[in-house]
Amino acid sequence: MQNRTNFATKLGVILATVGSSVGLGNIWRFPFEAGRNGGSAFILIYVGCVLLLGIPCILAEFLVGRRSHANPVEAFGKLAPRTPWYLVGLMGIFTGFCINGFYCVVTGWTFSYFLTSLRGSFFEDGTDYSRFFTEFSTGTWQPILWAVLAMLAVHWVVSRGVRKGIEMSGRILMPVLFLLLLVLGVRGLFMPGAAEGLRFLFMPDFSGVTATTVLSALGQAFFSLSVGMGALLTYSSYFSDEVSLEKTAYQVAGLDTLVAILAGIVVFPAVFSFGIQPSAGPGLVFVTMPEVFAGMPLSNLWSSLFYLLLAIAALTSSVSLHEAVVAFISEHFELSRRKASLFVLMIVVCMGALCSLSIGVLGKYTLGGRNFFDMLDFLTSAFLLPFGGLLTTLFVGWKLGPASLQEELSSHGRYRVRLIKVYLFLIRFVAPICILAIFLFNLLM
Ligand code: PFF
């Protein structure tokens, strides 16, 4: 692992890592999950999950990454030589390919919707947006071409390396993302239905809360924070000792949650203004939002800004999904970063093509009622991510133990870590037990 680089600046560390976490999970999945699960109560539970489960998991991944300065497979291998723990890293690589498979398809959709929004004709009277989305997403070539285009952009960033590619893209794109979110959020607050939208988001009503609500919030926290497959581990392997893991974990969890809530402020006032059901599901962003934009003045402008926001969020998260796998392949097989990335690109595109076709012409091939796209989504969020997170917390809590936790969180004595006992308790007991609960729930339902 000679010549392994680090991120150049602390700001770069935060922006790149937040770029991994903030993605389709925040802006596409969070609003519809909140909408489906009753709004504010879901959000409160979600925040609880981030604090109790998300932060310990981030800390555990950061610790393994920075302590080993290695890719996910070699990280576990280095910290626990001659044990099967490296399999956790290998599972992460597999998970990375699987998430990438469907994530690249949705990333492609966001690119296409952005460019379509720029065209005037998208908002001509009488467009049926539900039909438009179905025809587009079930088409044979178009969605695949968009996914390929999106993946070429990701490949370009990753090939340029840690500093010039990943760090630079985070430094440019994340401020743009925050600016867009702010502009759209302020626009949302001035919509006629804003009060109703905000009430839906912020007035807790626990009457509809069930076990499913709690477990959906847990699952959402997991996916949204990018925990469980080694993406954060890989990024933290590029952290220097000057980076405080504790502070970075809070910044990532805090900003990720902020973006999710801001996305709610963008989506719900608009949805209520136009009398649309907030529980519209996954179509909320690709079907309902165009309907909302069509009824607004300057529809093209607002719609373009919104899909640009979504495309940027998807892109920076895709970069981290790609990087975790590329780091392993290039280091393990001693390939150049560019060649490794090209290899990953080819596999991801093949999986993406299958995912996309499985919504369309290959729709009749299902397993347990799920097409390939849904299967990958289910397999990763219900099984692989929770399992990866569970094993990582067990590894840090029980295999590495309190001394390594103290050493790494304090950056070898550089920082004071006041809550060390709390973290140890969360990593050893609370997080594994909660994750096991999501895991079992998903398996049994
Ligand atoms: N956190 C990303 C999102 O919210 O869209 C998705 C993701 C990225 C999950 C990277 C897992 C991962 F390793």
Structural class: mainly alpha
> How much beta, percentage-wise?
under 5%
Ligand types: 4-fluoro-L-phenylalanine
Major sheet details: none
- Name of the CATH class: Mainly Alpha
The CATH homologous superfamily corresponds to Amino acid/polyamine transporter I
Helix percentage: over 70%
What does this structure look like?
The protein has one domain (10-444): Amino acid/polyamine transporter I, CATH 1.20.1740.10. The mean pLDDT is 91. The longest helix is centred in the C-terminal third of the chain and has 38 residues, at 372-409. Helix 8 runs antiparallel to helix 14. It is globular. The chain is an all-alpha fold. It contains 17 helices and no strands. The structure holds 4-fluoro-L-phenylalanine. 4-fluoro-L-phenylalanine binds next to helix 1, helix 2, helix 10 and helix 14.
Brief synopsis:
The chain is mainly alpha-helical and 445 residues long. Helix content is 77%, strand content 0%. The protein has a single domain (10-444), classed as Amino acid/polyamine transporter I (Up-down Bundle), CATH 1.20.1740.10.
